[in-house]
């Protein structure tokens, strides 16, 4: 598909907006529908679209497989370390209320952080699975 | 009702189609319809997940698998009697199970009278998060979501190990 002009231009137009939408879903998950899981899938879909239109190797240059594969455990680590942090600050595991002075604000911060962890793991996993599947045929 | 009829029609199409490419496209359409059903039921978060995962990513992965295998479904080697019996028994068990569920939309069931109202009335006060789905998932039920993330992590690692290991074998046998 490398030489298909319409697809290339359409993809170039779509990719930044889809990425932005992914970030919106991630950080607006408190207010609207969405959250880490959905945002992770959307961002992974952007990478997959890029790989389909511009070729797997180009995509691997932009988003190297090593980064993608590191993202998988790092996300779980972010999530779990939020729990450990709240334990160190004197609360129960994953009780965010102790993370800041105001318990409600602390809850908001904790939710933001664990959603980030979910996002990193999901985006990494989806992209990594696609990379290995797409890389097998060649 | 229209959506459910379309869902049934697509299911029959998936069962009858022998071209796997058509099956993949049909199941993608099925996911989109399912997402519409979720929106009708006011479950926007689930609808979003269904549309992106079911219709988006898994369709792409299925097409990737088709690229590696044949497009036509193989003719089954044995009679479909045993699978048919298993399917009928499982369907009967599931239907029997639904008789115990409370009727749709009733307010005084266990789901709506236990912790649900507590979450609904305290979410904004305690977490400043207006989307109750998010606050339940990430805060009240934080450990469950940690478990889910770990499941995704484990699944990803397992798939990577399976596919990678196979490929290394291939290159070894090519060299030998």
Short description:
The complex is a heterodimer of chains A (138) and B (176). In chain A, 78% of the residues lie in helices and 0% in strands.
Structure description:
The complex is a heterodimer of chains A (138) and B (176). Chain A has 138 residues and is mainly alpha-helical. Chain A has helices at residues 5-27, 36-54, 56-62, 65-88, 103-136. Chain A contains five helices and no strands. In chain A, helix 4 (65-88) packs antiparallel against helix 5. With 176 residues, chain B is an all-alpha fold. Chain B has eight helices and no strands. Chain B has helices spanning 2-16, 20-40, 44-68, 81-98, 110-113, 116-127, 132-140, 142-175. Chain B is globular. In chain B, 17% of the residues are buried. Chains A and B meet through helix 2, helix 4 and helix 5 of A and helix 3, helix 6, helix 7 and helix 8 of B.
Protein chains sharing the most extensive interface: A-B, 52 and 46 residues
Structural domains of chain A: how many: 1
**Low-confidence parts of chain A:** none
Write down the secondary-structure element order of chain A: HHHHH
Estimated structural class of chain B: mainly alpha
CATH architecture term of the domain at 1-74 in chain B? Up-down Bundle
Principal-axes geometry of chain B comes out as globular
In total, the number of strands of chain A is: 0
Helical content band of chain A: over 70%
Q: What is the highest CATH level, the class of the domain at 1-74 in chain B?
A: Mainly Alpha
| Rg of chain B, Å, rounded | 22 Å
- Rg estimate of chain A, integer Å: 18 Å
CATH fold title of the domain at 1-74 in chain B: Four Helix Bundle (Hemerythrin (Met), subunit A)
Shape of chain A: elongated
């Amino acid at each position: 598909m490398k030489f298909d002009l319409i697809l290339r231009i359409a993809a170039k137009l779509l990719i930044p907006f889809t990425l932005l939408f992914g970030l919106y879903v991630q950080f607006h998950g408190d207010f609207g529908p969405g959250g880490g899981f959905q945002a992770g899938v959307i961002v992974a879909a952007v990478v997959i679209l890029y790989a389909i239109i511009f070729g797997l190797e180009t995509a691997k240059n932009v988003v190297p497989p090593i980064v993608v594969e590191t993202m998988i455990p790092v996300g779980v680590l972010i999530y779990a370390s939020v729990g450990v942090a709240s334990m160190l600050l004197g609360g129960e595991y994953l009780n965010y209320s102790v993370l800041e002075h105001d318990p409600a604000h602390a809850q908001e911060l904790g939710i933001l952080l664990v959603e980030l962890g979910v996002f990193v793991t999901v985006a990494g996993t989806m992209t990594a699975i696609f990379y290995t599947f797409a890389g097998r045929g060649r | 009702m229209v959506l459910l009829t379309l869902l049934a029609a697509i299911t029959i199409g998936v069962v009858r189609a022998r071209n796997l490419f058509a099956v993949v496209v049909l199941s993608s359409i099925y996911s989109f319809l399912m997402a519409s059903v979720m929106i009708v039921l006011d479950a926007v978060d689930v609808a979003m997940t269904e549309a992106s995962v079911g219709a988006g990513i898994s369709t792409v992965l299925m097409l990737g698998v088709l690229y590696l295998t044949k497009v036509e479904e193989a003719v089954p080697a044995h009679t479909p009697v045993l699978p048919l019996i298993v399917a009928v028994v499982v369907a009967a068990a599931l239907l029997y199970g639904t008789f115990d569920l409370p009727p749709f939309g009733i307010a005084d069931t266990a789901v709506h009278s236990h912790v649900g109202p507590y979450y609904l009335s305290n979410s904004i006060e305690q977490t400043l998060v207006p989307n109750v789905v998010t606050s339940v998932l990430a805060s009240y039920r934080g450990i469950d979501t940690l478990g889910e993330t770990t499941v995704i992590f484990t699944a990803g690692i397992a798939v990577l190990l399976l596919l990678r290991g196979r490929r290394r074998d291939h290159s070894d046998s090519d060299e030998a």
